[in-house]
């Protein structure tokens, strides 16, 4: 393959289409710079940093149109750490997990490995499709991803009508801030900031209901051994004081704060959701009309508006395609590493301009004509 040079007029203004860490907006960096020296490099136990945390927490409550009594929790560690926290201090006896991709399955593995819990009820589905939650007696947590980042499948946020007191716990890592939903349908809506919030990794956030807070209190006083860094009761106590158990990344919080403010100012979650729907449709429509490409997710109702996966027929080497794009500054279009498909995966997160997604399709067309 000779080097393919995409003409500048076809290229997107910003070539970052990865699923996380994802495109950071320049305005977020300007905001970060404005916190020097007042906030950056200062104590996380003093007002300037606590006010920043408070601003993120109240901005998220606005963004999610949180029902009365819901709170925002945060702690160090990211969504992966949240799974261990939930296994230790949220699941009482037995959880049900929808596993229709890597991330949903991983939470099921975390509860499956916990010796103090019963074997979880894991409902799997082929990559590219999705499984269905079902009320089962004795289940106290129903868990599923709002958006399965590994495959580009999204699921509606709806409560599972199980036993009284059962909680609905949604992994919103790649959905939060990019897909509209009704918060009253969940008890825990948790996520990391490096996807639609265009920030950096290392912290998890969660919108939690009063029922979830009550559950955390019950499980954490049950006598079970819970490591301090994983104890959600500590996250409740510290978050209410706008702090974390140990030192958080201030730059991550700052970039998060600016992104939440930007989305709220633009029109909130409804605006963000319309924008990601527009961007993703550009790609799905392109794949439908391109002979060598097909949307990987066959049911249009399951197709994600924030992570688009496109399969290529065998006449196209998708790995060579993403390599050629990368050489032209269009990065991170490779598929999820463990999926092993002849595919491109493209994030259409809120920070990404729909016009840049249009330019991406023009750039792909240009490369396709010259690959072989
Ligand atoms: C990225 C991602 C995770 C993992 O997030 P970390 O911050 O790396 O722990 C979990 N779930 C989903 C759906 C994701 O997209």
TrEMBL record:
Listed EC numbers: 2.6.1.52
Molecular functions (GO terms): alanine-glyoxylate transaminase activity; L-serine-pyruvate transaminase activity; O-phospho-L-serine:2-oxoglutarate aminotransferase activity
Alphabetic keyword roster: Amino-acid biosynthesis, Aminotransferase, Cytoplasm, Pyridoxal phosphate, Pyridoxine biosynthesis, Serine biosynthesis, Transferase
Top-level enzyme category: transferase
Catalyzed reactions per annotation: 4-(phosphooxy)-L-threonine + 2-oxoglutarate = (R)-3-hydroxy-2-oxo-4-phosphooxybutanoate + L-glutamate; O-phospho-L-serine + 2-oxoglutarate = 3-phosphooxypyruvate + L-glutamate
GO terms (BP aspect): glycine biosynthetic process, by transamination of glyoxylate; L-serine biosynthetic process; pyridoxine biosynthetic process
Name of this protein: phosphoserine transaminase
Cofactor: pyridoxal 5'-phosphate
Domain Aminotransferase class V, chain residue ranges per copy: 140-330
UniProt similarity note: Belongs to the class-V pyridoxal-phosphate-dependent aminotransferase family. SerC subfamily.
InterPro entries named among the record's database cross-references: Aminotrans_V_dom (IPR000192), Pser_aminoTfrase (IPR022278), Pser_aminoTfrase_mycobac (IPR006272), PyrdxlP-dep_Trfase (IPR015424), PyrdxlP-dep_Trfase_major (IPR015421), PyrdxlP-dep_Trfase_small (IPR015422)
Superkingdom in the source lineage: Bacteria
Functional pathway: Amino-acid biosynthesis; L-serine biosynthesis; L-serine from 3-phospho-D-glycerate: step 2/3
Function (record text): Catalyzes the reversible conversion of 3-phosphohydroxypyruvate to phosphoserine and of 3-hydroxy-2-oxo-4-phosphonooxybutanoate to phosphohydroxythreonine.
